[in-house]
């Protein structure tokens, strides 16, 4: 296995910049996922590693070698795509061994590798099946085995689970994690699905608009997002956001005020607009908030719609007296709405007046212009101590 290094990769198609100056390193044996909305440049970035796309600028290294201009077959990479395209007239054994036979390995070596790969993806006993006799998940495993037999330095996987149904996708996630562990493989994985990225990867690289936003372990992206984009993209349902004005001793949003001594935040002055972010699980009914070390002052609200999910209930809160929930408005970004998640045993119903508090230790503040994180957690910022400054994006 080998490490992969991208150095200032830019890819332009005419006027459009698909990938904008991306530099990152994937360690030997690491599972890194490129995640971001459709069109953000994930596949193009990965294709520069595979050799399927030539970067306009920048260099690609695999191990210690500069492979920027090498043909895909000379890079020691194996790819698994969304559409695995098995040969329909060949059985599983022939499909897995096809690339090896082209390379003229002797029969015994081919058989040894195919059996080992089939064992890893749990297809033993199915080697004489035809693709038409297999489920989508089994076919996808044949595609992965076909990559394994080549013994690559790096696995590149582009949305390999996208065509599978939801249940199988979740199952295959655990299989890929096991595969990663067993092979000690370097894996670069592309997905638009933040849950897939969160659950499988050592680190996730969040992309937007061709630019790398943050590369960090999943929980760091979740708890210390480097900017508002990452904060909103990672986590489902999304973080709530509300713009507010910094006043003397507080942050005033259109519906509530949070105690804040902004003189303790270097980048913030009275009169500035900053964006407050809070995740649904960090909004609490005041009557259940005894255990919070640092709650905000209670905020008046009315419950609008309740969504029972089984293990939790999403409660849409309306903050202003005279507003109705609107289907057009995204509750995450509407200043008059707040999404709260509560446990299923919580006594609450639609149309009820309630008051809620925010957990100060979980409040994020972002620069309203640039979106950059200013602080994660404002515990102590109303008093003598200071909060934690955001960590630098790696
Ligand atoms: P993602 O994988 O994140 O969905 P892509 O890397 O496929 O995004 O694409 C990034 C951007 O580059 C998109 O705007 C896409 O339209 C553009 N793009 C990708 N490939 C080509 C191409 N061959 N020619 C022109 N534009 C392209």
How does this model look, in words?
Residues 4-234 form the ABC transporter domain. GO terms for molecular function: ABC-type transporter activity; ATP binding; ATP hydrolysis activity. The complex is composed of two ATP-binding proteins (XacJ and XacK), two transmembrane proteins (XacH and XacI) and a solute-binding protein (XacG). This is ABC-type D-xylose/L-arabinose transporter. By secondary structure, this protein is an alpha+beta fold. The chain has two domains: 4-232, Rossmann fold; 237-386, no CATH class. The chain has eight helices and 21 strands. It has helices spanning 42-50, 92-102, 107-120, 136-148, 166-183, 194-200, 218-223, 228-233; strands at residues 4-13, 16-26, 31-35, 57-62, 65-66, 77-80, 154-158, 186-191, 203-208, 211-216, 240-247, 250-253, 257-259, 273-278, 283-285, 299-308, 313-318, 337-342, 353-358, 364-367, 373-376. Strands 6-7-8-3-9-10 form a six-stranded mixed β-sheet, sandwiched between helices. A six-stranded antiparallel β-sheet has the order 13-12-11-14-20-21. The two termini are 23 Å apart. The relative contact order is 0.12. The structure holds adenosine-5'-diphosphate. Adenosine-5'-diphosphate (ADP) is lined by residues 13, 16, 18, 36, 38-44. Adenosine-5'-diphosphate binds at residues 13, 16, 18, 36, 38-44.
């Amino acid at each position: 296995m080998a490490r992969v290094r991208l150095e200032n990769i830019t890819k332009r198609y005419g006027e459009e910049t698909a990938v904008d100056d991306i530099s990152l390193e994937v360690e030997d044996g690491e599972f890194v996922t490129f995640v971001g909305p459709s069109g953000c440049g994930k596949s193009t970035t990965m294709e520069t590693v595979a050799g399927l796309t030539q970067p306009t600028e920048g260099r690609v290294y695999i191990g210690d070698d500069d492979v920027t201009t090498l043909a895909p077959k000379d890079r020691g990479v194996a790819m698994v795509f969304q559409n695995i395209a098995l040969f329909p007239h060949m059985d599983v054994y022939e499909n897995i061994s096809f690339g090896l036979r082209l390379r003229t390995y002797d029969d015994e070596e081919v058989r040894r590798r195919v059996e080992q790969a089939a064992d890893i993806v749990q297809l033993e006993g199915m080697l004489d099946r035809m693709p038409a006799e297999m489920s989508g998940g089994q076919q996808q495993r044949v595609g992965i085995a076909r990559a394994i037999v080549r013994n690559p330095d790096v696995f590149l996987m582009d949305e390999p689970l996208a065509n599978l149904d939801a249940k199988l996708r979740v199952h295959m996630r655990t299989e890929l994690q096991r595969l990663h562990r067993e092979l000690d493989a370097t894996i670069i994985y592309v997905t638009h699905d933040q849950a897939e990225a969160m659950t499988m990867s050592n680190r996730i690289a969040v992309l937007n608009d061709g630019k790398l936003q943050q590369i960090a372990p999943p929980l760091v992206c979740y708890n210390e997002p480097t900017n508002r984009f990452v904060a909103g993209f990672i986590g489902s349902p999304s973080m709530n956001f509300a713009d507010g004005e910094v006043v003397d001793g507080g942050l005033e949003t259109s519906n509530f005020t949070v105690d804040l001594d902004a003189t303790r935040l270097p980048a913030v002055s009275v009169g500035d607009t900053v964006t407050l972010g809070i995740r649904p699980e960090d909004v609490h009914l005041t009557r259940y908030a005894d255990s919070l070390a640092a709650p905000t002052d209670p905020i008046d609200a009315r419950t609008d719609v309740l969504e029972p999910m089984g293990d939790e209930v999403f409660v849409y809160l309306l903050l202003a007296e005279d507003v109705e929930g609107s289907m057009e408005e995204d509750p995450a970004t509407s200043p008059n709405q707040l999404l709260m998640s509560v446990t299923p045993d919580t006594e609450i119903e639609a149309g009820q007046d309630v008051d809620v508090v925010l957990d100060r230790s979980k409040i994020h503040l972002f620069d309203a212009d640039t979106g950059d994180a200013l602080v994660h957690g404002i515990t102590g910022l109303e008093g003598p101590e200071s909060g934690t400054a955001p960590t630098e994006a790696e």
